[in-house]
Amino acid sequence: MTVFTDMWAYLTDAGNWTGSGGMLQLLLQQLLLTFTALALACGLGLPVALWLGHLGRGGFLAINISNVGRAVPTFALLALFVTADFPGTDTLGPYGRAGLATLLALTLFALPPIITNAYVAVREVPDDVVQAADGMGMSGRQRFARVELPLALPLVLSGVRLALVQVWATATIAALVAGPGLGRVITDGFFRTNYGKGLAGAVVVAVVALALELLAAAVQRLARPVPAGQSPGRSPGGSGGGSTGGDHGSVSASERIDPAAAEH
Amino acid sequence: MTLLVRASAAEEPSCYSRAVNEWVCADYVRDRQSEILDATVQHVAITLASVALGILIAFPMALAARRFPRLEASVLGVSTGIYTVPSLALFPLLVPFTGLTPTTVVIGLALYALTILVRAMLEGLRAVPDDIVESARGLGYGATRLLFRVELPLAIPVIMAGLRVATVSTVALTTVGSLVAYGGLGNLIRDGVSTNFRAELFTAAVLCVALAVLLDVLIVLAQRVLTPWTRGVRA
Fold first, then answer.
1. Interface of B with A in 134-153 (CB under 8 A)
2. Exposure string for A154-184, b = 16+ CB within 10 A, e = fewer
3. Which of A58, B120, B155, B160 could cysteine-pair with A52, CB 3.0–4.6 Å?
4. pLDDT digits over B50-101, tens only?
5. Is B68 exposed, middle or buried (0-12, 13-18, 19+ CB in 10 A)?
6. What number of other Cβ atoms are within 10 A of residue B73's Cβ?
7. What CATH number should be reported for the domain holding residue A182?
């Protein structure tokens, strides 16, 4: 399989990594795109979804936006953006050619998982905990900030984590419209029948995807109110963590939320 | 200048001519009917083949994971791992083995569908109540008959939910197959981008979403037919 030796040769040649258009630059470009799109999606989606979850309204919308998002191909969306007068293929600072179009498409792509998970997370906070908060005389805002938000955090984060890896992976599609990112390496190698190069690009993207997944999992574990592995039911108050929802509340809720979080 | 304008006015340019280049254009759909139809047929064929292949592989995997609990973690781990590989990267990875053929796209998409389906199958089978399984055993059901006559029918709602997710995302992902020239409607989208052909691009994108919705509705209908008992309970 000469393809693999070609790939290895491409990966180990320092010249392919450095300089303008090198893999390092493209890698950074794609990371920048991914995190900007994710931040935009979080900034837009989280407040709305958490608020709707707190009010307990708009569930139909919050759940179904995921289904709609799944049905719209990101490639088609990106293609429409690039071909339209706005945002078109204009270069956007460090984001490269068609930067704005890619950023918009990726943000729209990241919104559904973030919104759905955040909404479900707040709704999943057990009723008795919410009632206890009300009974303690908390206002709606206090209940949200001190009870619902801390308890919902693990599931909210798992939505963001899901979106992060998916956005990173999907960002490669920008190359199909000659946009920014590592997808360039893949399509370039591919169309010039330099399969070793294409394969090298694919491997780098996959490795970074796995690294991001592991990183996100580690961050998520840090944010858990009760450390995993510790049986929460039997050791209440053992480690309430950073949650301010009261020990008993956080314990019973994390018990309920955990299996849901593990699904992703 | 006036000459040019008069000339084009005389010809009555269709709405998809270079000068006009409208997004929505009925003339385009009429004139390129066969091209659009071919792309749609290819899209449907690739999607169905991928999902079918995904089911064929996912089923034994789910059964094995259920039978040997030790396997379960690795089966789920591998399927999550596959999902982190971008489709644009997966197709080139497969090309050295399968070439520039529809097979490449089908295998790649089947791998993605697989990850969703294995999870759904495991969850669905696990959700079958223990007492029902026990009473079936008490009635003398063997393992195979138990699976096909009792457990699978009861797992259908959860499995179908997974199938809907898998099918809809496969329809969307098929467009990326245009990388190896077998992307169904994705080929039209790609061509639309490179030639700045708005009507072609828009029509293909709309058809793509419509196709996803259509298949989703069909699966829901199939589920209603397959599980008549759930309707009885609700009514």
1. none
2. bbbbbbbbbbbbbbbbbbbbbbbbbbbbbbb
3. A58
4. 999 999 999 999 999 988 888 888 888 887 778 778 888 888 888 888 888 9
5. exposed
6. 10
7. 1.10.3720.10
The verdict on residue B90 lying in a domain is yes
Neighbours of A99 (CB within 10 A): 24
Residue A129: predicted pLDDT: 93
Residue A8, both tokens? 């290895």
The total domain count for chain A is 1
Residue-wise pLDDT for B208-222, tens only, equals 999 999 999 999 999
State how far residue A246 is from chain B, nearest Cα, in angstroms: 33
As for how many domains chain B has, the answer is 1
Closest by Cβ to A199, choosing from B80, B92, B204:
B92
Alpha-carbon gap, residue A236 to A250, rounded angstroms: 9
Which residue in B25, B78, B84, B195 has the most chain A C-beta atoms within 10 A of its own C-beta, making it the best mutation to test that interface? Answer: B84
Residue B5 inside a domain? The answer is no
Measured CA distances, A240 to A8, A122, A226 (Å): 49, 19, 6
CB contact (8 A) between residue A169 and residue B201: no
Q: Which two tokens stand for residue B1?
A: 């200048």
pLDDT of residue B153: 92
Q: B220 and chain A: CB distance < 8 Å anywhere?
A: no
Q: Do B196 and A176 touch (CB under 8 A)?
A: no
Q: What is the 3-state secondary structure (H, E, C) of A138-176?
A: CCHHHHHHHHHHHHHHHHHHHHHHHHHHHHHHHHHHHHH
Element (H, E) at B147: none
Which residue is listed with tokens 């007492």?
B131
Could you read off the pLDDT of B117-174 as tens digits, one per residue? 999 999 999 999 999 999 999 999 999 999 999 999 999 999 999 999 999 999 999 9
Q: Do B96 and A1 touch (CB under 8 A)?
A: yes
Which residue ranges in chain A fall short of pLDDT 70? Answer: 1, 225-264
pLDDT for B7 beyond 70: no
In a domain, B117, yes or no: yes
* Cβ atoms of B54 and B166 closer than 8 Å: yes
Domain range for A171 is 2-227+236-262
Per DSSP, the three-state class of B175 is helix
Q: What CATH number is given to the structural domain containing B196?
A: 1.10.3720.10
Joined together, the tokens standing for residue B103 give 């097979």
What is the tens place of the pLDDT at every residue in B8-36? Answer: 444 567 787 877 788 888 888 888 889 99
